[in-house]
Amino acid sequence: MSRSHKEGGVLGLFDDPVRLLEAVRKLRSRGLTEFEVFSPYAVEGIEKAQGLKRSLIPFVTLVFASLGCTLGFYFQYWTSVIDWPLNVGGKPYNSWPAFVPVMFELTVLAGGLATFGALLLFARLPNTSRSALDPSITRDRFAILVSGMNPEDASNLLTTIGAREVRAIVPRGWF
Amino acid sequence: MAEILITGGKSAADLDADVARPVERFPTRIWWVCFLAALAAFGLGALLATDMFQRGLGVLGLNITNGWGVFIVNFVFWVGIGHAGTLISAILYLFRQRWRTGINRTAEAMTIFAVMTALLFPVIHTGRPWYAIFWLIPYPNERSLWVNFRSPLIWDVFAVGTYFTISLVFWFTGLIPDLASLRDRAKHPVRKAVYTVLSLGWRGSSRNWLHYETAYLILAGLSTPLVLSVHSVVSFDFAVSSVPGWHTTIFPPYFVAGAIFSGFAMVVTLLVITREVFGLKDYITLDHLEKMNKILLATGMMVGYAYACEFFIAWYSGNPIERFALTNRAFGPYAWAYWIMVACNVAVPQIFWFKRARRNLALMFLVSLLVNIGMWFERFVIVVTSLHRDFLPSSWRYYVPTFYDWGITLGSFGWFFIWFLLFVRFLPVIAMSEVKAVIAEENGEGHVAVA
């Protein structure tokens, strides 16, 4: 399932998610892996049918949230205890309970920004070299893009598995 | 499929057309009237603020003992308004409350604009806003001294800053697929180009949806503690001080309940108008509004409980100063403000015990306005009555906001509505990709994600 190839191929359009799921299962049972699935909303079960692995975003969030928490504490400790220890109201220099709110906020901030960053990275957004395949996909239709195959065979295959409309796609960028 | 969330037998294509309509045509006259009114209000506030910066904060009603006045009231009020949006978008998402899909986009937008409005006040309240950035951001000053991280005011900077950033990221993440829908509908080249860039080239591939759903779930999880923490930290600004009437442990939950209460009232106000003006009655249904009104009833009683609890503790603690502060609040010179607060926040929402009242548009609009007035006065009562009589009776005074206070307050409403009107004009007011999943499920089109 290499994604390095140019994103040309043959696009098959479907009218509902049930047919799409069936089609994806049929493609997989034929041993085909060079295809992408598109939908206007997240179709439940598509990742299983397509054999996609779980997203790694939660691990990124965990790492960065932990970093935010630790560095948040370290920064407050360093400024209050090491760089300029200042007696405020007779409290200990390392008055850690008072540091908790800022630690918490930095945990959420770092975790949230990392989650968004990871989403862009994993989803390869923004990618100016790819544009929408068909305007109806973000409206109410579903599609399978078969690439790395002879266009005629791909068209026949997509029609056999139930595509309503089939056409060739030439890769192009945003503008 | 016990309940119908979308009425009128709408399809996904109808949804796109209905939501995109206000975006794809020249704004209506009513939009222009509202927009110009908002601009005028903001203009007045900006003018008065400029004049205030030149002359100094003396033009406000502030003086010893009232170091804080209407500006801090407005700050707490606007931050509070924001909470409903995060509650709807994050907590209701985690609880799989699917009715949220019709209203979450508007509510989240409201959150962001409310926090932007709130942030104006601590900055202009310094009187020298061009220095404020240096006072708020932790960096070593000219004597290499750092900010005091034990101060709730610094916690507040982090809390509200994080809240704004995460809300914005969460909102934008939700917008990406819908911006792609607008892009694919667009005929005008400029509109097409703008939405192409904004949608980041989203194509709706299943790999992207997989990451997207995961990221959305995590952002909802991260935003959830923010709903509870932000107004708790705002309440620390008061509760960590030693001022009688502020120094109470009930403040964090009391502030959070009040924030959700006022926020839901603002959402009802905005939704009643938005669904009417943009013809979205099939997506933002009476059922949605009825649920919101139930939450108003529940949170209204929570704040009512908090008011009563404050009095109970003032009596039970046996502390004469605390007793004075609370008695002064309800029966002192500002009794009028206290009873406006009780009437609007505790008494008025009780009408929502009746189903007919919960489903009556005119009535809920009126109640939501009254609740917002009541919640503004709640903050006024907390800020002003606790300060105007301190420990030394010779310094007691009666705080009266001036024309500058009121004008700048009006300006903040103008600022909020400028952003909100731009939002309804340029962005999809309903989370289309989420509602499409709901429509598909209601039509029985197989197993689809609860988005």
Structure description:
The complex is a heterodimer of chains A (175) and B (451). Chain A folds into two domains: 9-51 and 129-169, Alpha-Beta Plaits (2-Layer Sandwich); 57-122, no CATH class. Chain A contains five helices and four strands, in the order E-H-E-H-H-H-E-H-E. Chain A starts with 8 loop residues before the first strand and ends in a 6-residue tail after the last strand. By secondary structure, chain A is of the alpha+beta class. By secondary structure, chain B is mostly helical. Chain B has a single domain, classed as Up-down Bundle (Formate dehydrogenase/DMSO reductase fold), CATH 1.20.1630.10. Chain B has 16 helices and no strands. At the A-B interface, helix 1, strand 2, helix 2, helix 3 and helix 4 of A face helix 1, helix 6, helix 7, helix 8 and helix 16 of B.
Write the layout of secondary structure elements.
The complex is a heterodimer of chains A (175) and B (451).
Chain A: E1 9-14, H1 17-29, E2 35-38, H2 46-50, H3 57-83, H4 100-122, E3 142-146, H5 151-160, E4 165-169
Antiparallel strand pairs in A: 1-3, 1-4, 2-3
Helix pairs in contact in A: 3-4
Chain B: H1 12-24, H2 29-55, H3 70-94, H4 104-125, H5 129-136, H6 152-185, H7 189-198, H8 206-239, H9 251-277, H10 286-316, H11 320-331, H12 335-347, H13 355-358, H14 361-388, H15 403-426, H16 432-442
Helix pairs in contact in B: 1-16, 2-15, 3-4, 3-8, 3-9, 3-14, 4-6, 4-9, 4-15, 6-7, 6-8, 8-9, 9-10, 9-14, 10-11, 11-12, 11-14, 12-14
